[in-house]
Amino acid sequence: MRGARAGRRKDGKRWWHQQDTIATSAQRHLTYWKVILLVSVCLLEIVDGQRLAEEREESHSTTLMARKEPRRPPWGVLYDPYLAEEGEEYKARWHRSLADVTAAYRKSRKERKNRKRQQENSNQDCHLEKKQMRVRDLGLGYDSDEIVLFKYCVGSCTSSRKNYDMALKILTENGSILGHDVSTHPCCRPTRFEAVSFMDTRTNWQTIRWLSAANCSCVG
Q: For the whole model, what pTM was predicted?
C-alpha cells in the first residue's frame, strides 16, 4: 500500500513537473512571438512612415513644378487669324510712321540748310568790307599821312528785290517808263556809320563824321 501511494505521489509530481515545463515553454513561445510581432509592427510603421514622407515630397515637388511651369494651351487654341492680321497691320503702320518721321526729318534738315544757304548768299550779296587807307587818299581835302581803317559796303541786292523792283524793271525794259536814272533794284548801302579821327600834318587833331560804314543792308 505504501509503495503504491509513493508511486502515485512520484507520478503526480512528475506530471505536475511536466505540466509546469509545458506551461513555461508555452509562455516562452508566446513571449517570443509577441516580441516578433512587436518588432514587425515597428518595422511596418517605419516603412509606412518613410513611404508617406516620400509621397509627400514627391507631391510637393510636383506642385512646385506645376506652379513654375503652368500648362500652356496648344498652339491651335492660341492662334487667331484675326490677331495675326492685326499684328501685320500694326507692323505695316509702324513702318509707315517711321518712314514719315524720317522723311519729315530730312525735309526739315533740307529746309534748314536752304535757309542757312540763303542767309550766307544774302550776306555775300550785301556785306561789309574793310581796307586800310591814307587820309590824304580819301579825297576829302585833309593832309595827313596817317592810315585809317575805311569800311564800305559791297555787293548787290538781287535776292532782296520786291514786287515793286521786278515790275519796275519790266516796265523800263518794255519802254512803258522812260528814265535812265530809275533804280530797278535795292542798293547795298550803309545803315549806320562810324567817325574816324586822325592827326594832320599841322599836328591838329581831326575827326570826320559819317566816314566809315558800321553796318550794311539792302536799301530801296
A: 0.42
- Compute the distance between CA of residue 209 and CA of residue 193 in angstroms, rounded to an integer: 8
Q: Does 203 lie in the same domain as 145?
A: yes
Beta strands in 90-160 (DSSP E): 127-134, 147-154
Plot region of 196 (φ>0 → left; ψ -120 to 50 → alpha; else → beta):
beta
Q: What is the pLDDT of residues 132-156, one digit of tens each?
A: 999 999 999 999 999 999 999 999 8
Q: Are residues 99 and 133 in the same domain?
A: no
**Can you give the C-alpha Rg of the chain in angstroms?**
63
- Only one residue has cell 500694326, namely 90
Q: Is 15 found in the same domain as 51? A: yes
Domain count for the chain, please give it. Answer: 3
> What are the residues facing 188 on neighbouring strands?
218
Residue 176's domain spans which residues? 126-219
Residues 135 and 213 in one domain: yes
> Is the per-residue pLDDT at 96 higher than 60?
yes
- The arithmetic mean of pLDDT across residues 35-47, rounded, is 76
**Cα Dmax for the chain:** 199
| CA–CA distances in Å: residue 46 to residues 38, 49, 107 | 12, 5, 85
